[in-house]
Amino acid sequence: MYTLEQIFEALGKAENGGAMVADLQNLITGVRNEAAANRVEKNKVLDALGLRSSDDPQSALNNLRTALEALKKTGNPESLGSQITTLQNQVKELTDKYTASEKKVEAEHSKRINTSMQSMLQSALTKGNALNPEAFVKLLRDKVEVGEDDSMSMKVGDKSVSIDEGVKDWLAANPWAVKNMAAGGAGSGSAGTPGKVYTMDDLKGMTPDQINSHWDEIKRSMKG
Asked: In a 10 Å sphere around its CB, with 0-12 CB exposed, 13-18 middle and 19+ buried, how is residue 97 labelled?
C-alpha cells in the first residue's frame, strides 16, 4: 500500500501535479475535520447518557438500547412519562396532606396540654388561698414539666413533685401571694393612701426580699 508521501511525490511529477496535491490535501483535511466534528457530537450524546465514562461504552450503549426496547413493549414511553409525572404529583399531594394533618394533631395536643396545665395550676392555687390564681398561673407554668406520657409535675429543688405539692411549696416560700384569712378588726388596714399598685410585670422584676417587704401593698394590688 502506498503512503501519502509516495502518492504526493508521484502526483507532484505529473502535469498540474502541484494543484492536484493541494486539492488532495484539502480533501483529506475536510474528511478529518468532519470526523472530528462527528466524534465531538457522539461524545456529547454519550456524556448526556452517562456512557462515555464507562469502561465499555459500546456495551453500555447496547444495554441502554435493550432497556429502551423493553420500555417500548410496555407501552408508549411518552405516555409512561406522563403517568410518572401524575404519580409524582399525587405523592406530593398526599405528603402535603399528611404533613398538614400532623401539624393539626400536634397543635391540638399542645392546646390540650396547656389547658390541662392551666386548670391544674389554678386549682392548686385556689386551694392554697392564692391572692390571684389566674395571674399566678402565668408565673408558674414555666416550672411545670410534661412527661412523655403527658403526665405533669413541678421541679422543687432536685426532685419532681406533683403540681399540688409544687404550688404549696411555692406559696409557702412567697407568703405575699397568699390571702390573709384572719378577720380584720378595728384599726385594721392602712391609713392614708394605699400606695403603689403592683402589676405582674412588676413582680417578675422583683427579688423575693423586695416582694416580702411590700407584700401588703402587693396584696391590695391583687385584690384590685
From this structure: exposed
Asked whether the beta carbons of 133 and 122 are under 8 A apart, the reply is: yes
pTM: 0.43
Please tell me the distance from the alpha carbon of residue 111 to that of residue 103, in angstroms, as a whole number: 12
| Spatial separation of the C-alpha atoms in residues 195 and 220, rounded to whole Å | 9
Give how far the C-alpha of residue 137 lies from the chain's centroid of Cα atoms, to the nearest Å: 32
**Per-residue model confidence as pLDDT tens for the chain (224 residues):** 777 777 767 777 777 777 877 877 888 888 888 888 877 777 776 666 666 666 676 777 677 777 777 766 666 666 666 777 777 888 888 788 888 888 888 888 888 888 888 889 989 999 888 888 888 888 888 889 888 888 889 888 888 899 999 999 999 888 888 887 654 444 444 443 456 777 777 777 777 677 777 777 777 776 65
Torsion over CA of 152, 155, 160 and 166, rounded to 10 degrees? -80
Nearest to 123 by CA among 132, 131, 133, 110: 133
